Every structure is written in C-alpha cells, then in structure tokens.
User: Fold this.
Amino acid sequence: MLSRRNHHDDDLAENHEINVTPFIDVMLVLLIIFMVAAPLATVDVNVNLPASTADYAPRPDKPIILTIKADHSLVLGGDPVSRDALGAALDHAAKGNKESRVFLRADKSIDYDTLMQTLNALRSAGYLRIALVGLDQPRR
Assistant:
C-alpha cells in the first residue's frame, strides 16, 4: 500500500509578528549593568578644574564679603572676626536679612576642611546664599 503524503500540510504558516520578548530581556539586562557600573565610573577621578569664564552677576551696592586668610583667620568686610562671633557679625552686616548674599573669598592655600567648616558656620548662622569669589580668566 502506497500512500501519498501531502507536503503542503506539513509546512508551517508564516508569522509576520516580531517576538520582542528577547529584545526586552536584553535591554533590561543592559539597564541593570549600566545602573551598577555608572556610579563606579565616577569614583576617584582626578580632575583639574578650569577657571570660570561665566558672565558677571550684578554686584550689590554694599556686598557682604567674608575672607578666609592664609592663616585661617576670618575677615568680614575689613574687620577681623572669630568663628564664634561670625553669626552675630553677619547679622549686623546684613541688618538681619538672612536672604543677603555672602561673598566668600579664600586664599589659595586654604585646605578643603577649613572651607567646609566656614560654609557650615555660615549655614548654621542661617545664611544660605553664598557666592564663591575667584579670579577671572580671560575668554579665548
């Protein structure tokens, strides 16, 4: 008995839809890899910061300028001030206006710890608007 087989019944029907499940799986794995690797890429990076070439901000008529000298002493305006009396001296200079901007200047030799202690003292006194003063670099 010979039977004839129809080969057309065994063919699979063409499917015109794209299976995106593997694509989504790969993208989620890549997302997780980048989320883990991105913070690791920014640790211990040596950076040589450039000087600022930003446009000038308008200067107030009587700015409050706090200077950290090379010997770590503080000068408010032209008068020496101790760290303990900084809050009272700022209140007197700003006439009690805590929204006044304080311009902070520091000698090049000042370490980061001293700068942060001064910023913390300003924040403790209630002065949150602080502008760092530096030398201008000519634009190229």
